[in-house]
Amino acid sequence: MIMFGPKVIYGTKICFIGLGKLGLPCAEAFVKKGFDVSGYDVLEPSTQNVTKFISIEGAVKDREIIFIAVPTPHEDGYDGRTPTSHLEVKDFDYEIVKDTLKTLNKILKPQQTVVLISTVLPGTIRREFAGLLDNNVLLYNPYLIAMGTVEADVLNPEMIMIGSDGLEESKHRVELLENFYNQVCENYPRVEIGTWEEMESMKIFYNTFISNKLSLVNMIQDVANKLGHMNVDKVTKGLANSTKRITSSAYMKAGMGDGGACHPRDNIALRWLAKQLNLGYDLFESIMSAREKQAENMAKEILKHGKNIAFSSDSYKPNTDLVDGSYSLLVQHYVVKHGGQIAKGSNNPVQVIVRVHETDSITTDSNTIVFDPWRTYPPASNVVYYGK
Q1: Mean pLDDT of 132-144
Q2: Which residue of 169, 294, 350, 382 is 20 to 30 Å from 87, comparing CA positions?
Q3: Which ranges of the chain would DSSP assign to H, the alpha helix?
Q4: Is the model's pTM score more than 0.85?
Q5: Superfamily classification of domain 2-206
């Protein structure tokens, strides 16, 4: 993560392909900041500020940065205004993006930079788009905006996300895009730079994080309505003011899952309450099922490196010997289930040591794999990072 420095002015000419509910307000915002903006859309958008062209070729001529803001739609019925839980799960439709990139590949000069801002799922750019441009760099730069406040959100973003393939020429184009936002933004947002996959994930999980947050607070509302004698706002305000562990960066480090005397059992008890109150849904069944499947996924990954497995701790957190709700023991359960054995008391040489807590120090020889789900153990040829 980096932060913007003093603003530097460049004479960047830009183009927007797609002048719909995302592209047009973004393009007009950049015009207001003094940029020369051209645009193309299959429809005829109403704008006096953006120079419209009747072809992509005309719109992109002599442009330094070409933003692609075309739709990646679902079929009708998938936007949530009517029930969707019964529908078949589907990826977005990327055909318009593909067609756009294929057209650009025929007409662009190598020095022109292509920037996709349309929403896609993690893995999409490398799988679907990377091979469609022969001579041009493709960056991913999704926006965190809300309809109705697009212009203000673009000019005052919470963060700027820029993803690339990481090659040397792409690094230069990332700097170009940073310089562009350096003069566009009215605040000084942080800049997140990484791979296509990292930025695809950061964008879409940002959105779904909000969905999950709202689902939980609305469950509290349902409980309040069913139980009586409670005001949902009193509860959610108390939670919102809990800045130590809830509204903070706490628990945003992926590693071993939660445990302890409260977390798993509270989720199980809330499943019972949801049923008793006849809420009609069970958030916590999904949470507990996910917890178990995540532990099983980790166990399977551990077993790729050996069958005789040691764990640095059985406890649910550092500096205690308590094993209530221990995630370490849950992973060990799945190690055994899938054909491994736990090295305690075994005469067989340990093949893998799992670093259960981030603070655990491990002493071993180079023939034993250190499996680190925290990705912070000193790198070495025998160290395997999970999730990296």
Answers
A1: 97
A2: 294
A3: 23-32, 56-60, 95-107, 124, 150-155, 168-184, 196-227, 232-240, 263-276, 283-303, 327-337
A4: yes
A5: NAD(P)-binding Rossmann-like Domain (3.40.50.720)
